[in-house]
Amino acid sequence: LRNLEHIRDILAIADEVPRMYLQACKEARIKPIYQPFWSDLPGADIFLSITPDTLHQLYQGILKHLVSWIKSAYPHAEIDARCQRLPPNHHIRFFVKGITPLTKLTGQEHADIARILLGLIVDLPLPNHLSPVRLIRSVRALLDFIYLAQYPIHNTATLDAMEEAMNCFDDNKSIFVDLHIRDTWNLPKLHIVARHYRLLIERFGATDNFNTQFFERLHIEVAKDAADATHWKDEFPQMTLWLERNEKIARHGNYIQWRQAGCPPLADINPLPPPLPPLKMTKRPSLLAVPITQLEQEYHAADFRGALCRFIVQHNNPTASNLAILQEARDFVLPFTRLPVYHRARFWRADFPYYQNSLDSYDAIHVRPKRKNYRGDILPPRFDTVLVNIGNGEIVGTNGYRVAQVKVIFSLPRAAIPLIFNADRRSPLYLAYVEWFTPFRDPDEVHGLYRVSHAVREGKRLTAVIPLVNIHRSVHLIPQFGPRLNREWTAGNVLEKCTKFYVNCFTDRHTYGTLF
């Protein structure tokens, strides 16, 4: 940070020789302001008032520059085509026309772009046969810094990781000069992020204490809405009166609710929210009785009967060998032909709640076949991918987890449960039919993403029926597009037609902070 005493000495000569004062301000790189208000305030250091700002310094600053550099490096049509073919996910925004035509982006839109930016360019070749390694490492480094800087709790390890990410960017940013995108790096927001964020976090705490996004929301509620209630003539007294009346109405409404509740004792100020259930389902299934043959055809669950039989046999005999389970499952007869089916499930992860985007936001997966909307248009099927705890999943990291695609979420008829499960074995309330992907291996050395592909044996995809509670959270897969995009792929069929994928670690802060 700046030397405050040196700055005060420069300000003290403002009344002596103006030309000397202007030259001294220029050399110190400060504005030549005459007697600033803070110059005589005791114990005040005006330069410490510049705190970290996630919205304007990271998303509307660093990421905005990064997106513009990528637009200059790659063909717009190719970026947009890949963006339009990303599979859907609860946390991923679908940009219908891509990201290059967008202008005047908000902070939220830049945050949505950050979730997919690395996946859009990971296989794209650069012009003039330049190696894209430095560019990909630069993008990964800045995204790592943006996500690390938003951690709600910091220690020496996380601050060191922030510095390593920025050092990685410094080591590889020359690619933008080689591509004639940048000739200098005189960017004030990049300077404060690269040189001062660690010191500011150590001095003032985590960046969520200073995020101006909260005040942007208040600006809407107490300024824009209040202004819209006026007739735009002498509006300030009208806005003040409007706010005063709304506050009185809100307080009176709270008082009425308190009286109607029997005047209970006042609760603590800012109480902690109650814990949310880890799995939230609708009270009634989306479809009450779907034939198993329909599940096999419309839900693409070709091995549904076999997988369900194997699950029942293994649930009753957890110590049986795989060969014994297969032999007994072949002879097992299901006492039902229809099942209640659910098209959506919501999850809440209580391991790191403050890594969530908000304290009441659920993660969700969608599982539904092809259907028509109210206009008669055919909507493609959607079968989301998830991260499954295979028995020994830890709080942090990918050990004990495996990616799967959910094809059916269902429950068993109550009347059939005593017929298929042993009395000493408690049956799961909800089940899911999934298709497995290959296990996690070491991430790529350049972009740091994990590679997975469809798990296949003898030409058929490996399937299983698992308890729904074993699903840890949703996960987004980015197709391995390669140098040339397959134009037959769409957002609706890419999970079926593509065979190799990257696991997206930037879908949300919880995924980045706890798994990758």
Q: Report Rg.
A: 28 Å
Strand content: 5-15%
* Arithmetic mean of pLDDT: 90
Number of strand segments: 18
Poorly predicted ranges: none
Keywords:
516 residues; alpha+beta; 7-stranded antiparallel β-sheet; 4-stranded antiparallel β-sheet; globular
Description of the molecule:
The chain contains 18 helices and 18 strands. The mean pLDDT is 90. It is globular, with a radius of gyration of 28 Å. Strand 6 (371-372) and strand 7 (378-379) form a beta hairpin. The chain has 516 residues and is of the alpha+beta class. It has helices at residues 4-11, 18-28, 54-73, 76-83, 107-114, 117-121, 133-149, 156-172, 174-178, 188-204, 213-228, 235-260, 292-298, 304-316, 322-330, 417-420, 494-497, 509-514; strands at residues 279-280, 287-291, 338-342, 344-347, 363-368, 371-372, 378-379, 382-383, 385-389, 401-410, 431-436, 450-453, 456-457, 460-461, 463-467, 471-474, 476-479, 500-504. Strands 2, 3, 9, 10, 11, 15 and 16 form a seven-stranded antiparallel β-sheet that branches. A four-stranded antiparallel β-sheet has the order 1-4-5-8, with no helix packed on it.
